[in-house]
Amino acid sequence: MQKPTFKRIYLSLTTILILILHFPLLSANHKPAPITKAVSANAAFINADIEHTTTNNNLVSSVDALYDSMDLDLMGLSKTAFDYAIKGFSYLEHAGKFANDNIISIVDFSLPSSKKRLFVIDLDQVKVLFNTYVAHGSKSGAAMATEFSNIPESNKSSLGFYETLQTYSGGHGYSLKLQGLERGINDNANSRAIVIHPAAYVDEALIRSQGYIGRSWGCPALPEKLSKPIINTIKGGTCLFLYSPDKNYLNKSKIINA
């Protein structure tokens, strides 16, 4: 029998927690709540008073174990960024959003562009597939991305959750279209032509000469040599999360605050 993955354990615990928190509402309305494929129907009969604390602790423990098992702290990924990424991913996966829910990509803008701040993670294998540099928008900041926008021609990065779409060949070569999933935060990604593409300015030589890599017009541009394998790994309906400890985003995001 196949062992349950961290992803399935986490999603199961998340859904049980949702059911527990909403148990009184379920009883009042006599309407069954939607549950993910990973959760048994018996979850609806869990005693809320007894199980709430245990489930919440197990949920935190499973996420902590996932983070620790891949040495993400040593690699530089913020625990806060990871926690928000998994929380939002779980919420969106629960809604059936992603065609491929094995892969999650996290861009941690709490790090400067001189650090490898893109993390592509296989949740089934519990493995970091790629960890490399990624550009932010030219008007988001120099070494650090500190300003963000959803406005066309702002040349700023947009935070939040995205779904990866199909590939195409454009002015930057082999590229990947993105769909912003947060209204008012990144839902203008298509009209702004915010895509993942290779860029010569995402290069360590620039870090040595000026302290940071080059910047884009808002796209999360990647190193030329790694761009194609990364795109081929995350294309076709996976989750991409661009994080920053930006109070405006954290307060406004309905997914983060769901």
What value does the Rg take, in angstroms?
A: 19 Å
Number of helices: 8
What composes the largest sheet?
7 strands, mixed
| Average predicted confidence as pLDDT | 85
Question: What is the succession of H and E elements?
Answer: HHHHHEEEEEEHHEH
> What oligomeric state do the depicted chains represent?
single chain
Shape: globular
Please characterize this protein's 3D structure.
Helix 1 runs antiparallel to helix 3 (48-69). The chain is 34% helix and 17% strand. With 258 residues, the chain is of the alpha+beta class. Strands 3-2-1-7-4-5-6 form a seven-stranded mixed beta sheet. The protein has helices spanning 6-21, 23-29, 48-69, 72-75, 79-94, 204-210, 224-234, 247-252, and strands at residues 103-108, 118-122, 127-132, 160-170, 173-180, 195-196, 239-243.
SSE order and pairing:
Blueprint: H1 6-21, H2 23-29, H3 48-69, H4 72-75, H5 79-94, E1 103-108, E2 118-122, E3 127-132, E4 160-170, E5 173-180, E6 195-196, H6 204-210, H7 224-234, E7 239-243, H8 247-252
Helix pairs in contact: 1-3
List keywords for this structure.
single chain, 258 residues, alpha+beta, 7-stranded mixed β-sheet, 7 strands
Short account of what is shown:
By secondary structure, this protein is of the alpha+beta class. Helix content is 34%, strand content 17%. The chain is built from 8 helices and 7 strands.
